[in-house]
Structures are given as structure tokens and as C-alpha cells.
Amino acid sequence: xxxxxxxxxxxxxxxxxxxxxxxxxxxxxxxxxxxxxxxxxxxxxxxxxxxxxxxxxxxxxxxxxxxxxxxxxxxxxxxxxxxxxxxxxxxxxxxxxxxxxxxxxxxxxxxxxxxxxxxxxxxxxxxxxxxxxxxxxxxxxxxxxxxxxxxxxxxxxxxxxxxxxxxxxxxxxxxxxxxxxxxxxxxxxxxxxxxxxxxxxxxxxxxxxxxxxxxxxxxxxxxxxx
Amino acid sequence: xxxxxxxxxxxxxxxxxxxxxxxxxxxxxxxxxxxxxxxxxxxxxxxxxxxxxxxxxxxxxxxxxxxxxxxxxxxxxxxxxxxxxxxxxxxxxxxxxxxxxxxxxxxxxxxxxxxxxxxxxxxxxxxxxxxxxxxxxxxxxxxxxxxxxxxxxxxxxxxxxxxxxxxxxxxxxxxxxxxxxxxxxxxxxxxxxxxxxxxxxxxxxxxxxxxxxxxxxxxxxxxxxx
DNA sequence: CATTTATCTTAAGAATGTCTTAAGAATTAT
DNA sequence: ATAATTCTTAAGACATTCTTAAGATAAATG
Lengths: 226, 226
Prior knowledge:
- The structure is a homodimer of 226-residue chains.
- By secondary structure, chain A is α/β, with parallel strands linked by helices.
- Chain A has helices at 10-22, 33-42, 59-69, 84-92, 105-120, 152-163, 171-179, 190-205; strands at residues 2-6, 26-30, 47-51, 74-79, 97-100, 127-129, 132-135, 140-143, 146-148, 168-170, 212-215, 219-222.
- In chain A, a hairpin with a 3-residue loop joins strand 11 (212-215) and strand 12.
């Protein structure tokens, strides 16, 4: 799960980033709206945390912009102003949640979780794709009720496929989602092959085959027949 | 016994929480209905204390909602309005009891006890997970009727696992529950390893094994098969 | 059909995370 | 004040996962 944090205070930015990283998220950050816009133009995020009280620019404007461009990302507004005006305005513009400073990090985390669940899984506890069941809060995956032990990268990869099922994803977009914006400069993404193979193998060992189809020269397609 | 307290006044919230914790309950709190709803989506509670005079939102609405979703939880309404209208309305919507502010904590406690006794007929306050029995009131733990001597940290750790059974908890969240909010900034949480080991060992010595599963790089999962 | 390019497979070393142990510090009980 | 218990620190052992690299296989191109 990839998060963009827009926050100008270096200290706060660092500690939020650190915390969310430890919670297993891939976190990127921007210190102002210009940089944030740039990033949003280049990348897709699952969730965007935006402090709307930044010195330059109107915070609510960027919420509107983000909402227009990043259709998939959920937006959580962070604000010191605890006026309900701001809250209402933000939510009207399409933000999904609102968090007043100061907040504690666990609280932020549970908001993010709730948001992701609402957006990605229609609020369901488990994702069921034929014989495959994924329960995000357990971080567990089963095939025909049998548990499949996936590593972090394999799990992230599977989740990325699932949330893009029946859609072709490029190696670039996979790399970006699993490794972040550092992955641009990487000359090759060969390790994807390795993780993908391990994932396929583990699923295959449980009798699960033909899900991740390779599209030569383009990318991959996680196929699910309804 | 897990209780959710919905109360906006920080002082009151803190003191009720503190008191009930000392009485052996596991207490979580939410300051408004949105947060309360999120928590209810995530957890099951045995009892929910809800202050229906919160500034935002209609308190009676949430009683209705809670009753629909959390079928198991008993609901006690707290209210400053001591009008019998409110009382009747609340009880009609499915609340189990009604307590007018100001109340004293002992009174609250006996209401909770009565409610829990009514609901779990036998009136015992133990948490039973297969061969493990925990009696929060006594801070005691037994495995197959044999007592297990746990230290404070070990007990807290076990209780945290139990209240998050079948869910992955990160080291961060463990640290936060055992050492408080300051632990965010701690660079390493290595002592968790030690307490966890001691807990595992004590359980294992009584023949209790495979409960706390390590999820490499992510956290731990206290597994209980229903 | 030969060549190029992309993907797959395998295995080993690097990096990271977890477990265990023991000893000193802090706390609590006697 | 002394003893007992519990908590924290630190260090090394151990385990898992990630990345790297190189050779094998498969697909596209002319």
C-alpha cells in the first residue's frame, strides 16, 4: 500500500513516515503542494495524507485537484484548524476523512486502514477470488482453506494484482508500487521476476494456477472470471 | 471483557477508562461517533458505554446503529439529560440500561456487572480461549486449570494479543499499548522480544504452544481457531 | 531460421528481522 | 535495609527474506 504524505514540518513528516513505514506501508512525502502535484502527476497512490495548513497555497485547492487527478487514492485531511468549517469544506471537496492535529499515530493508522478497506474492498473483511481468500487484517492468504505463507513482497504483489484484476499492469507500475519512486532510477526490475515466480509457485503448490498471465513485452494480467 | 467508551470530554473519558481498567476490564475509547463506528467495525465489544449528549451527531442514532451491527454488545447510555423521554427513547432503541450524569464510578461498575451477568447468564468475567482462561478481575491466567504466573508486562502482552486475536499486530502497536504513546519515537523495541519469549515459554511449559505466530517483518498474530 | 529481446529459473550472498541468553538496573516486597 | 522479582540492555546466534547475477527458455522480428 502506497501512501503520499504532504506535510511541511520536517520533524512531523519524518516521524509519521517512520511510523507508517514500520506499519508496512510504502510512504513517500512532499513538503509543499508543488512537489506534491509533481508526484501525483507521476505516480499513483492508494492514500494521500494532506496537511491543509501549509504556508504556501490553499490546502483545500489541492484537495480538489488531487480528487480530480488521482481517482483511486483516498484522501485524508490533516489540519490544525479544528474548525468544522474546514472539515466540512474538505469533505465536500471529496476528502474521505479528516484528522485534527494533534493526533496520535495509532489513530492515523486506523483511519488509513478503515479508508483502504472502504475503498479497496468495499468495506469487506475478506477478499474472495474463487478459491483464493485474502484477509487483510490477518495478512493471511488461503487457497481452498489451506494457508499460503507469503513474504511481505509476495503479499504486496498479490494484493496489487488483485486490486487491478482483469487489468494489465506493467512492470514499471509494479515496481513503483512495491519499491516507490526510487525505482525510476533502477536500470532493471529483474527482481520482480523472482518475487513473481515465488508467488506463482506458492499458489501453484496449492493447486492454484493460471492466475497471473504474462503479456509479453507489456506486463501482467491477473485474470478472474466472474 | 472488552468495553468501548464513547465520550467526548477528555477528562471524564480518562478517569472512567482508568477506573474500569483497574477493575479488570479492557477499555477502549472513542471521542466521537465516527471514531466509534470505525472501532465497532474493527472489534467486538461486550459492552458499549455511550454518552448520547455529544456535541456532534444525534446520540440516539448511534444507539440504533450500534444495536444493528454489534448484536452481542450490551449498551449502556450515559446522559446528562435526565429526562425520562430520552431514557425511554434510548431503551426503546435497544439500549440495556441508562445512567444519568453525574454518576459515581462504583455505580457505573455495578451497572456494567449487572449487564454482563444478565447477558452471559453465568456472570463470570473470564476470557476463555481453549485451554487458556483469563480472569481480568484477578489478573490471573490458567492453562488447563493450572495457574500460570505472569509478570505485569507478560500479562498485558497476553491480554493485548487476546483482544486482537486472529489479527496481525505490529511491534509498534504492541509497544504503544504496553509503554504508552511516547513509544512512537523509540528507535527500537527490542525488549518486546524478551517479554514475548518469556510469555511464550511460560505458556509452553503448561503445554500451550503455537498461539503467538511470528509474521516476519510484519508483526505477530495470536491465532485462535473457532 | 537466426537473431534479438523479454521472461523465467535457480542459487548464493547480502541485508534485515527475530530469538535467546545473561547480566546489571530498577522496582517491589519482606 | 535487604532480598526477591521484574524490567531493560546488549550482544551474538539464528532464521527469513531480498537482491544480485548468470544461464536457460520462450516470444517476436525480419
